[in-house]
Write a structure and sequence with these properties.
The complex is a heterodimer of chains A (583) and B (117).
Chain A lengths: L12 H8 L4 H11 L6 H13 L1 H14 L11 H8 L1 H14 L2 H5 L23 E3 L6 E3 L16 H6 L17 H12 L5 H11 L12 H13 L18 E4 L7 H10 L5 E4 L7 H10 L5 E5 L6 H10 L5 E7 L4 H11 L5 E7 L4 H7 L8 E3 L9 H11 L5 E3 L8 H11 L5 E3 L8 H10 L7 E3 L8 H11 L5 E3 L8 H10 L5 E3 L8 H10 L6 E3 L20 E3 L8
Parallel strand pairs in A: 3-4, 4-5, 5-6, 6-7, 7-8, 8-9, 9-10, 10-11, 11-12, 12-13, 13-14, 14-15
Antiparallel strand pairs in A: 1-2
Chain B lengths: L17 E5 L5 E5 H4 L3 H7 L6 H5 L1 E3 L4 H18 L9 H7 L2 H13 L3
Parallel strand pairs in B: 1-3
Antiparallel strand pairs in B: 1-2
The chains are: A alpha/beta (583), B mainly alpha (117).
Protein name (chain A): DNA repair protein rhp7 treble clef domain-containing protein
GO biological process, one term (chain A): SCF-dependent proteasomal ubiquitin-dependent protein catabolic process
Pfam families (chain A): zf_Tbcl_Rhp7 (PF23550)
């Protein structure tokens, strides 16, 4: 960098020019130092030291060339400062980029010294004497030791000592103001938009108004029970039900209370629910995850008339609380819970002992501890049980236990749900259901992979039960045409709801029978019945015209919805046509 | 009645068209289509590419009574206006809330839910 000998080789025109005009690295450095004091920080010196030796010759050449081609008046060395600086370091740019990304220093982005484009060549920074050496101040002529923060004297060469620098108004510690970079506004805005710009729906606005006026219950006018149901559903849809606006639904004279999403009700609110609705006979709470032992214990005394209880998600309640509840409510008629890993055999025993004479509906869906023993306990409810739902257990019960249970309680059952007991076989149908159950209305045997087509067909052909109204045999892909034909023969005339989602092999011909044999259907789920096509759909829609409200055809590739063109109109909702977004 | 007769005038529905919203007790409101489109159900029923009869007459018969329909239209106009405003502007929700009297807000809630608003 600095010329240590006096040998001058051939130089380019540019070098000559610069020499003539006395533009040297030193001059530039001085100017740079006065205009733009270096940042207090280690980065600069390190960079300066490292990059000094390596790239000198090439860099200087480019630098010089750039300086000349920028076409500035060489005498006026102030103006071309910045642009010259910019073009200087094209080579340094590559180097400092690597360094920059390694350091990721925010300041260095803005600091012109480190900016790849405008930074001085590292060679220039060596203008300051090394830190620690003694220098005379340009202003007061006293001696001081050079530090990182020593500022160059503004007029002319030399440096100021610290007191003089401050006296003359230049704060040595002040970092050069970084030029404000504009962050790409578009990128920033999309994030902000996503969170903040959602226009509130009218439903939300209404709910807010309701919550604000919750104390003025009189102001709401006449509210019939039917409307309350709709309001409760609307509020629950967005999980907007909270401790304030739930008060709207309370009333000392209420006997039935149904809330579809009470996730946001704290245990305290739920306790209050009991106190404010003392005459409840029927209570249904969905998504009641926050129900705790305390709540149940409080309900033991606050809801003396409760006979129907339906809870979705009371997983926090422990066995002793359940037992206490049953003991305080010896006249329960229905007890339906879904999802509880803590409901033990003891709890069930308590239920059976206390309310055994009155209970008619028992639901233990997705109860983790369900086992054959539970079924044994349930047997003592013989003669009364009409509704039994023990679906989706963690571990399937066995054929024998189920058969034994059905033997005891089957005669009175009108609703049976054994879905998800994957180890049950045809035997359940033949030895459990067939001989014992004669009054069933609704049967759900979804996801029982061991059932066979032939077994189910035989079952339906022999069963003496009157036609069922609701049948759910979904997710049994081995069942097929034979079962379907027999099912139709058996229950077709009574069916309101049919779910054979997953019966992939049912033949088209068999499916056509729906339109003729099952005219009273309201809801059908024919998902994944691959043979279903437009002609069959047309037959179904026309055959079931009077009552049909919903048909699901998810996964039926041949269904395209072309029956509309041929004039078949239906008020039913058709869901799942692949080529349609909505219908 | 079995053939589809093509709709002559509203093959292309412009958002600047006027459409009619009728309440069940005899009130009618004329609003621009783009305001009416703020409700999912109304938009679908007035959509000319669907097969509904309303699209031809450009009239939507609501099951609600007049005052409820009126408040819904106020909301839709509000929303139509503020949907196009820049991201820096505040939406004065409070003004909207003040216009909804508490006496009708429950009915309005049920209606709003049905209308997908």
């Amino acid at each position: 960098m600095s010329r240590r000998n006096n040998v001058r080789g051939p130089t380019s025109a540019l070098t000559e020019f610069l020499k003539e005009n006395n533009i040297t690295p030193t001059t530039i450095a001085t100017r740079a130092a006065t205009q733009n004091q270096p940042i207090a920080g280690p980065s600069n010196s390190e960079q300066a030291d490292v990059e000094d030796e390596a790239e000198n010759p090439t860099r200087r050449k480019r630098r010089n060339r750039a300086a000349v081609t920028s076409g500035y008046d060489s005498d006026d060395l102030d103006e071309p400062e910045s642009p010259v600086k910019k073009k200087k370091t094209s080579a340094a740019a590559e180097k400092s980029k690597a360094k920059k990304t390694a350091k990721k220093n925010e300041d260095s982005d803005h600091n012109p010294d480190n900016d790849a484009y405008t930074a001085l060549s590292k060679a220039f920074r060596g203008n300051k004497p090394p830190n620690g050496s003694i220098e005379s101040c340009a202003e007061c002529e006293k001696e001081f030791s050079v530090s990182q923060y020593t500022m160059a004297a503004n007029p002319g060469p030399g440096f100021w000592c610290h007191p003089c620098a401050k006296k003359l108004g230049n704060d040595p510690f002040k970092k050069p103001a970084p030029p404000r970079k504009r962050k790409a506004p578009a990128a920033k805005r999309t994030i902000v938009n996503f969170e903040e710009r959602r226009f509130p729906t009218l439903v939300e606005t209404c709910i807010n108004i309701i919550s604000n006026h919750i104390d003025d219950i009189e102001a709401f006018g006449e509210i019939g029970t039917m409307n309350m149901e709709a309001i409760s559903k609307a509020i629950s849809k967005k999980r907007s039900l909270n401790s304030e606006n739930v008060q709207l639904f309370y009333g000392a004279e209420n006997t039935i209370l149904t809330l579809y999403d009470v996730t946001k009700l704290s245990p305290t609110s739920l306790i209050t629910l009991g106190h404010l609705n003392p005459n409840l006979t029927t209570l249904r709470l969905d998504y009641c995850g926050l129900i705790s032992d305390e709540v149940i214990n409080s309900w033991c005394s606050s809801l003396p008339n409760l006979v129907h209880l339906q809870l979705l998600g009371p997983f926090l309640v422990r066995a002793p609380a359940w037992v206490a509840f049953f003991q305080s409510h010896p006249q329960l008629q229905s007890f339906l819970i879904t999802q509880s890993p803590r409901f033990t055999l003891e709890c069930l025993q308590a239920l059976v002992e206390t309310s055994g004479k009155t209970v008619t509906r028992v639901g233990l869906r997705e109860v983790g501890l369900l086992s054959d023993e539970f079924l044994g306990v349930l047997e003592s409810l013989s003669g009364k049980l009409s509704y039994l739902d023990i679906s989706e257990p963690a571990k399937s019960c066995s054929d024998e236990a189920v058969n034994s249970l059905l033997g005891a309680v089957g005669s009175t059952l009108t609703h049976l749900n054994l879905s998800g007991h994957i180890e049950l076989t045809d035997d359940v149908l033949h030895s459990g259901v067939l001989p014992n159950i004669t009054n069933l209305n609704e049967l759900s045997l979804s996801n029982l992979p061991l059932l066979t087509d032939e077994g189910v067909a035989r079952f339906f052909s022999q069963w003496s039960n009157p036609p069922l109204t609701a049948v759910d045999f979904s997710r049994n892909p081995s069942l097929s045409t034979d079962s379907f034909i027999e099912l139709m023969n058996h229950s077709g005339e009574g069916l309101h709801s049919l779910d054979i989602n997953g019966w992939k092999d049912v033949s088209g011909k068999a499916l056509e029978n729906i339109g003729t044999q099952a005219r009273d259907l309201r809801k059908i789920d024919l998902g994944w019945c691959r043979e279903l096509d437009d002609f069959i759909m047309k037959a179904i829609l026309e055959g079931c015209k009077s009552w049909l409200s919903e048909v699901k055809v998810w996964g039926c590739n041949k269904v395209e919805g072309n029956w509309v063109h041929s004039g078949t109109r239906t008020k039913a909702k058709i869901l799942g046509i692949e080529t349609h977004t909505s219908m | 009645m079995n053939e589809d007769h093509p709709m002559d005038d509203s093959a292309i529905a412009s958002p600047e068209d006027w459409v009619r919203l009728a309440s069940n007790d005899g009130y009618t409101f004329l609003v621009k289509r783009r305001v009416a489109d703020m409700s999912g159900t109304i938009k679908n029923s007035l959509d000319t590419s669907g097969g509904f009869a309303e699209a031809g007459t450009r009239t939507y018969r609501s099951q609600e009574r007049g005052i409820i329909l009126q408040k819904m239209i106020e909301y839709m106009a509000f929303k139509a206006h503020y949907s196009n405003v820049g991201p820096k502007e505040e939406i004065p929700i409070h003004e909207l809330m003040e216009r909804m009297p508490p006496e009708v807000v429950l009915e309005l809630l049920v209606a709003a839910d049905y209308q997908e608003m």
